[in-house]
Amino acid sequence: MAPTSTTTIFLILGNIWFWTLFFSNTCKATSPAPKFPAILVFGDSTVDTGNNNYLKTLFKGNHYPYGLDFPGHVPTGRFSNGKLIPDFLASMLNIKESIPPFLDPSLSDNNLVTGVSFASGGSGFDDITGVVGGIVPFSKQIEHFKRYIVRVQGIVGEKEAKKLISSALVIISAGTNDFGFNIYDMPTRRFEFNISGYQDFLQNKLHLFIEELYELGCRTMAIAGLPPIGCLPIQITAKFKTSHDRRCIEEENLDALVYNKKLARVLPKIQSLLPRSKIVYADVYEPLNEMINNPLKFGFVETKRGCCGTGFVEVGPFCNALTPVCGNVLEYLFWDSIHPSQAAYQHLSIYLEEKVIPKLLNDGNQSHTRFDQTG
User: Fold this and answer.
1) Please, what's the b/e burial string for 257-296 (b: 16 or more CB within 10 A of its CB; e: otherwise)?
2) Cα 371 to Cα 157: distance, rounded to the nearest angstrom
3) What are the residues whose beta carbons fall under 8 Å from the beta carbon of 361, sequence distance 6 or more?
4) Count of the separate structural domains present in the chain
5) The domain that contains 348 carries what CATH number?
6) How far is CA 80 from CA 56, 68, 211, 275, 333, in A?
7) What is the per-residue pLDDT for 363?
8) How far is CA 65 from the centre of its chain?
9) 372 in any annotated domain
10) Residue 120 belongs to some domain of the structure
11) For residue 42, what are the β-bridge partners?
C-alpha cells in the first residue's frame, strides 16, 4: 500500500533530524579542543576591547567609523576598524570569536569564564600615564582582576576557578603610551629619567605587575614588546611639519629596540623566580617593521598615515562620524593615526600564533590541566 502524505512527512522530518544530529556531532568531534580555557588581557588601547565605553573619558572608540569592519559593522570600543589581536587569538585557539571587555555589565557567565579584557585605552605601566584622562591604570586593572576571580568562583566554584586561572593565557600589552605621553610628546618624566633609566623604571613596574598576577594564580603569560613607535603616523606628524617629508623617526625606533632587548633578557629571569610559570616575550616590533618596509607583501599600499581622515592626527574623538575614511582600508597598515588596522592586527596575530604560542605550550609548562565549567 502506498504511504500516506502524513507518513511521508514524518519520514522526511525524521531524516532531517537524523542528518542534523549526525553533522552536529561530527563537527563537535572534529573541532579541536581549546589550547587554553580562557584569555585574560591587560594593557592599553591595542588590547582594550571596550572597557573605556564605561568610563568618563573622552578617549573612546565606541562611535563610527570605529568598528566599520567588525562583525555587524558596529563600533564596540575597539580602537580599530575591526578585531584586535586578543580576538583573533581567541578564535585561532578555539576559545571563542572575540574577547569582551570586563566592564560590560551584560557579560554572560560563559563569556566571563572564557576570558575578558581588563585593558584601558590610554593606560601604561607608569602610574602617571593617562592619569588625567579618566582611564583604568594598571593598578586598577589588577583590582578588576580580583573582582573577576570572585565572580568566576561564584560561577564554577573555588577549585575550578583556581584551575582556570592557572591554565589561562594572560596577555600584557603596554608601554607605547608611557613613552609617547611622558618622554616624547609631553616630556613629564624627562626631568627625572634619561631614556635608559625610564626603560628600566617601566620594566620594574612590569616585573611587579607580573608578580601580582602570579600571586593571584596566573602562570602562563605573553608579554608584548614595543612597536616601532617612530613609525606611528601621529609621531611622524609631531616631528615633520610637511606631508611630503614623512618618514619614521629612527631615534624613537632605536629606543623601542633597546627596550625590547632588555625585556627579552629580563623575562626569563622573572620566570626563573616564579615556579611553574611560563613567561614569554612577544615581539611585535619585527613583524610590524616588516609590514612597513615590505608593504606590498602584505597587501598594503599606505604605511605613513591612517585610513581615518587625513591619517596624520585623527584618533579617538577626532576620528568620528563626520570624518571621511579611505577608499580601501585593506591597503592601509594603520586605521587611525596611532592604531593598526584590522588587517595589520590579523597579520600580527598569525605571527604570534606561529612564533609565541608554541613556546607557551611546550612541556616545560605543566599548568594546562583540563577545566570543567560545570564546577
Assistant:
1) bebbebbeebbeebbeebeebbbbbbbbbebbbebbeebe
2) 12
3) 35, 368
4) 1
5) 3.40.50.1110
6) 20, 8, 31, 37, 11
7) 53
8) 20
9) no
10) yes
11) 172
- Residues acting as catalytic residues: 45, 336, 339
Query: Residue 244's pLDDT is what?
Result: 77
Answer left, alpha or beta for residue 99, where phi above 0 means left and psi between -120 and 50 means alpha: beta
Residue 354: strand, helix, or coil: helix
Task: Give me the half-sphere count of Cα atoms (radius 13 Å) on the Cβ side of residue 72.
Answer: 3
Say how far apart CA 327 and CA 342 lie, in whole Å. Answer: 15
Position 26 scores a pLDDT of 43
* Segments of the chain scoring below 70 in pLDDT: 1-31, 363-375
Do 229 and 253 form a contact (C-beta atoms < 8 A)?
yes
| Predicted pLDDT at 275 | 97
- CB-based contacts of 97, cutoff 8 Å, min separation 6: 71, 87, 90, 91
Q: Are 335 and 329 in contact (CB under 8 A)?
A: yes
Cell of 247: 618618514
What is the spatial distance between Cα 95 and Cα 294, in angstroms, rounded to a whole number?
32
State the pairing for strand pair 278-282/220-224: parallel
Residue-level pLDDT at 6: 46
Buried b (16+ CB within 10 A) or exposed e, 39-57: bbbbbbbbbbbbbbbbbeb
Query: Exposed (0-12), middle (13-18) or buried (19+): which is 30, by Cβ within 10 Å?
Result: exposed
43: containing domain: 35-290+343-361
Of 98, 118, 92, 34, nearest in space to 371 by CA: 34
Within-domain flag for 12: no
Asked, for residue 231, whether it belongs to a domain, the answer is yes
